[in-house]
Give the backbone structure.
Amino acid sequence: MEQRVRLGQAGRAVAEYGPAQADVVRFRPSVAAVRLHDPAEHFEAATFSIAEPPKTVEALIRLLDIGGSLFILAFTLPFMVVAAAAIKLNSRGPVLYRQQRVGKGGRLFDLYKFRTMVDNAEAHVGPVLASKNDSRVTSVGRILRRTRLDELPQLYNILRGDMSLVGPRPERPFFVQRHKALQGVRLVVKPGLTGLAQVRSFYDLKPAHKVRYDYIYIQNRSFLLNLYILLQTIPVLFAKKGW
Protein backbone atom coordinates (compact mmCIF):
# COMPACT_ATOMS: atom_id res chain seq x y z
CA MET A 1 0.00 0.00 0.00
CA GLU A 2 1.36 3.43 -0.92
CA GLN A 3 2.25 5.66 2.00
CA ARG A 4 2.08 9.44 1.79
CA VAL A 5 2.44 12.36 4.16
CA ARG A 6 0.31 15.47 3.90
CA LEU A 7 0.62 18.74 5.80
CA GLY A 8 -1.95 18.95 8.56
CA GLN A 9 -3.02 21.75 10.90
CA ALA A 10 -0.32 24.01 12.38
CA GLY A 11 2.26 22.51 10.06
CA ARG A 12 2.17 19.03 11.56
CA ALA A 13 2.88 16.08 9.35
CA VAL A 14 -0.05 13.70 9.04
CA ALA A 15 0.48 10.19 7.74
CA GLU A 16 -1.99 8.80 5.23
CA TYR A 17 -1.76 5.04 4.89
CA GLY A 18 -3.50 1.83 5.79
CA PRO A 19 -3.01 -0.35 8.87
CA ALA A 20 0.49 0.94 9.74
CA GLN A 21 1.18 2.94 12.90
CA ALA A 22 2.95 6.28 13.14
CA ASP A 23 4.97 8.25 15.68
CA VAL A 24 5.49 11.98 15.16
CA VAL A 25 9.04 13.14 15.83
CA ARG A 26 9.28 16.94 16.10
CA PHE A 27 12.51 18.75 15.22
CA ARG A 28 11.30 22.35 15.49
CA PRO A 29 7.85 24.02 15.33
CA SER A 30 7.71 24.03 11.53
CA VAL A 31 9.21 20.61 10.81
CA ALA A 32 8.02 17.22 11.99
CA ALA A 33 8.84 13.69 10.98
CA VAL A 34 6.49 10.74 10.90
CA ARG A 35 7.95 7.34 11.67
CA LEU A 36 6.14 4.66 9.76
CA HIS A 37 5.81 1.09 11.03
CA ASP A 38 4.43 -1.17 8.34
CA PRO A 39 4.91 -4.91 8.85
CA ALA A 40 4.06 -5.52 5.19
CA GLU A 41 7.09 -3.61 3.94
CA HIS A 42 9.83 -5.78 2.43
CA PHE A 43 12.45 -3.44 3.85
CA GLU A 44 12.56 -3.77 7.62
CA ALA A 45 14.38 -0.56 8.54
CA ALA A 46 12.09 2.16 9.92
CA THR A 47 11.29 4.91 7.43
CA PHE A 48 10.43 8.53 8.02
CA SER A 49 8.68 11.29 6.13
CA ILE A 50 8.69 15.00 6.91
CA ALA A 51 6.25 17.82 6.51
CA GLU A 52 6.45 18.87 2.90
CA PRO A 53 8.41 22.08 2.25
CA PRO A 54 6.92 24.66 -0.15
CA LYS A 55 6.53 23.26 -3.64
CA THR A 56 8.60 26.13 -5.01
CA VAL A 57 11.57 24.98 -2.89
CA GLU A 58 11.25 21.41 -4.13
CA ALA A 59 10.93 22.65 -7.71
CA LEU A 60 14.07 24.81 -7.37
CA ILE A 61 16.03 21.91 -5.87
CA ARG A 62 14.90 19.63 -8.70
CA LEU A 63 15.88 22.24 -11.30
CA LEU A 64 19.28 22.52 -9.61
CA ASP A 65 19.60 18.73 -9.74
CA ILE A 66 18.79 18.53 -13.44
CA GLY A 67 20.70 21.61 -14.53
CA GLY A 68 23.69 20.84 -12.32
CA SER A 69 23.83 17.22 -13.44
CA LEU A 70 23.76 18.13 -17.12
CA PHE A 71 26.47 20.76 -16.60
CA ILE A 72 28.72 18.35 -14.66
CA LEU A 73 28.07 15.63 -17.24
CA ALA A 74 29.09 17.91 -20.12
CA PHE A 75 32.20 19.09 -18.27
CA THR A 76 33.37 15.67 -17.10
CA LEU A 77 32.41 13.54 -20.12
CA PRO A 78 36.01 13.40 -21.46
CA PHE A 79 37.26 12.29 -18.04
CA MET A 80 34.55 9.64 -17.88
CA VAL A 81 35.59 8.25 -21.28
CA VAL A 82 39.22 8.07 -20.14
CA ALA A 83 38.17 6.46 -16.84
CA ALA A 84 36.09 3.83 -18.64
CA ALA A 85 38.98 2.95 -20.97
CA ALA A 86 41.44 2.76 -18.06
CA ILE A 87 39.16 0.43 -16.09
CA LYS A 88 38.75 -1.87 -19.07
CA LEU A 89 42.51 -2.02 -19.72
CA ASN A 90 43.48 -2.38 -16.06
CA SER A 91 41.34 -5.31 -14.92
CA ARG A 92 38.79 -7.86 -16.07
CA GLY A 93 35.13 -7.15 -15.57
CA PRO A 94 32.52 -4.52 -16.46
CA VAL A 95 33.26 -0.81 -16.49
CA LEU A 96 30.20 0.09 -14.43
CA TYR A 97 29.29 -1.36 -11.06
CA ARG A 98 25.63 -1.60 -10.09
CA GLN A 99 24.62 -1.97 -6.47
CA GLN A 100 21.33 -1.78 -4.60
CA ARG A 101 21.01 1.15 -2.20
CA VAL A 102 18.33 2.54 0.12
CA GLY A 103 16.64 5.73 -1.04
CA LYS A 104 13.96 8.09 0.18
CA GLY A 105 11.35 6.39 2.33
CA GLY A 106 13.34 3.15 2.37
CA ARG A 107 12.79 2.57 -1.35
CA LEU A 108 15.49 0.43 -2.94
CA PHE A 109 17.14 1.50 -6.19
CA ASP A 110 20.13 0.52 -8.32
CA LEU A 111 23.08 2.89 -7.90
CA TYR A 112 25.76 3.12 -10.60
CA LYS A 113 29.48 3.73 -10.13
CA PHE A 114 32.66 3.14 -12.06
CA ARG A 115 34.05 -0.20 -10.91
CA THR A 116 37.03 0.38 -8.61
CA MET A 117 37.49 -3.15 -7.25
CA VAL A 118 38.29 -6.49 -8.82
CA ASP A 119 35.28 -8.15 -10.39
CA ASN A 120 33.00 -9.99 -7.90
CA ALA A 121 34.94 -8.50 -4.98
CA GLU A 122 32.34 -9.61 -2.43
CA ALA A 123 31.72 -13.07 -3.86
CA HIS A 124 33.59 -14.80 -1.03
CA VAL A 125 33.56 -12.28 1.83
CA GLY A 126 30.02 -10.91 1.54
CA PRO A 127 29.08 -7.25 2.16
CA VAL A 128 31.90 -5.47 4.00
CA LEU A 129 32.84 -1.82 4.33
CA ALA A 130 35.83 -0.81 2.22
CA SER A 131 38.97 0.02 4.18
CA LYS A 132 41.73 2.50 3.43
CA ASN A 133 44.20 -0.14 2.22
CA ASP A 134 41.63 -2.54 0.77
CA SER A 135 43.47 -5.09 -1.38
CA ARG A 136 40.38 -5.52 -3.58
CA VAL A 137 40.74 -2.00 -4.99
CA THR A 138 42.55 -1.90 -8.33
CA SER A 139 45.34 0.57 -9.13
CA VAL A 140 43.02 2.55 -11.42
CA GLY A 141 40.23 2.25 -8.88
CA ARG A 142 42.40 3.86 -6.22
CA ILE A 143 42.91 6.91 -8.44
CA LEU A 144 39.21 7.11 -9.26
CA ARG A 145 38.31 6.99 -5.57
CA ARG A 146 40.80 9.68 -4.61
CA THR A 147 39.45 12.01 -7.31
CA ARG A 148 35.79 10.95 -6.79
CA LEU A 149 35.48 10.20 -10.50
CA ASP A 150 34.01 6.81 -9.61
CA GLU A 151 30.84 8.58 -8.41
CA LEU A 152 30.08 10.34 -11.72
CA PRO A 153 27.75 7.64 -13.14
CA GLN A 154 25.36 8.57 -10.32
CA LEU A 155 24.44 11.61 -12.39
CA TYR A 156 22.19 9.12 -14.20
CA ASN A 157 20.52 8.29 -10.86
CA ILE A 158 19.98 12.00 -10.24
CA LEU A 159 18.42 12.61 -13.65
CA ARG A 160 16.16 9.58 -13.06
CA GLY A 161 15.02 11.02 -9.74
CA ASP A 162 16.51 8.31 -7.51
CA MET A 163 18.95 10.78 -5.99
CA SER A 164 19.67 14.48 -5.59
CA LEU A 165 22.93 16.35 -6.04
CA VAL A 166 22.90 17.04 -2.29
CA GLY A 167 21.69 14.78 0.49
CA PRO A 168 22.77 11.98 2.82
CA ARG A 169 24.95 9.44 1.02
CA PRO A 170 22.93 6.30 0.10
CA GLU A 171 23.84 3.13 1.96
CA ARG A 172 23.33 -0.55 1.22
CA PRO A 173 20.35 -2.36 2.80
CA PHE A 174 22.75 -4.73 4.60
CA PHE A 175 24.34 -1.87 6.54
CA VAL A 176 21.15 0.16 7.01
CA GLN A 177 19.53 -2.80 8.74
CA ARG A 178 22.51 -3.16 11.07
CA HIS A 179 23.17 0.49 11.96
CA LYS A 180 20.31 2.42 13.55
CA ALA A 181 22.16 5.65 12.76
CA LEU A 182 21.61 4.95 9.05
CA GLN A 183 17.87 4.40 9.46
CA GLY A 184 15.02 6.75 10.27
CA VAL A 185 15.50 10.44 9.66
CA ARG A 186 18.19 9.95 6.99
CA LEU A 187 15.50 8.40 4.80
CA VAL A 188 13.15 11.39 4.70
CA VAL A 189 14.94 12.99 1.73
CA LYS A 190 16.57 11.72 -1.43
CA PRO A 191 20.16 10.54 -1.00
CA GLY A 192 22.79 12.75 -2.58
CA LEU A 193 25.97 12.71 -4.61
CA THR A 194 27.52 14.95 -1.97
CA GLY A 195 26.33 16.23 1.38
CA LEU A 196 27.05 18.28 4.47
CA ALA A 197 28.94 15.36 6.03
CA GLN A 198 31.29 15.27 3.04
CA VAL A 199 32.10 18.99 2.97
CA ARG A 200 32.39 19.41 6.75
CA SER A 201 34.43 16.30 7.46
CA PHE A 202 35.74 13.18 5.69
CA TYR A 203 34.10 10.87 3.17
CA ASP A 204 34.95 7.82 5.28
CA LEU A 205 33.01 8.83 8.39
CA LYS A 206 31.53 6.14 10.60
CA PRO A 207 27.70 5.84 10.48
CA ALA A 208 27.19 7.43 13.92
CA HIS A 209 29.18 10.50 12.84
CA LYS A 210 27.58 10.80 9.41
CA VAL A 211 24.12 11.03 10.85
CA ARG A 212 24.91 14.15 12.92
CA TYR A 213 25.62 16.14 9.78
CA ASP A 214 22.71 14.52 7.95
CA TYR A 215 20.27 15.60 10.68
CA ILE A 216 21.52 19.19 10.47
CA TYR A 217 21.11 19.15 6.70
CA ILE A 218 17.59 17.68 6.78
CA GLN A 219 16.44 20.24 9.34
CA ASN A 220 17.76 23.14 7.27
CA ARG A 221 17.35 21.79 3.74
CA SER A 222 16.81 24.52 1.15
CA PHE A 223 17.83 25.57 -2.36
CA LEU A 224 20.51 27.93 -1.03
CA LEU A 225 21.93 25.32 1.34
CA ASN A 226 22.16 22.82 -1.52
CA LEU A 227 23.91 25.41 -3.67
CA TYR A 228 26.32 26.21 -0.82
CA ILE A 229 27.18 22.52 -0.30
CA LEU A 230 27.77 22.04 -4.04
CA LEU A 231 30.18 24.99 -4.11
CA GLN A 232 31.94 23.73 -0.98
CA THR A 233 32.36 20.30 -2.58
CA ILE A 234 34.79 21.71 -5.17
CA PRO A 235 37.64 22.53 -2.73
CA VAL A 236 36.97 19.23 -0.91
CA LEU A 237 37.67 17.34 -4.13
CA PHE A 238 41.00 19.10 -4.58
CA ALA A 239 41.87 18.60 -0.90
CA LYS A 240 41.28 14.85 -1.41
CA LYS A 241 39.76 14.31 2.02
CA GLY A 242 39.11 10.72 2.97
CA TRP A 243 40.22 7.99 0.60
In short: Helices lie at 55-90, 139-147, 154-160, 173-176, 196-200, 207-220, 223-239. The chain has two domains: 1-52, 53-239.
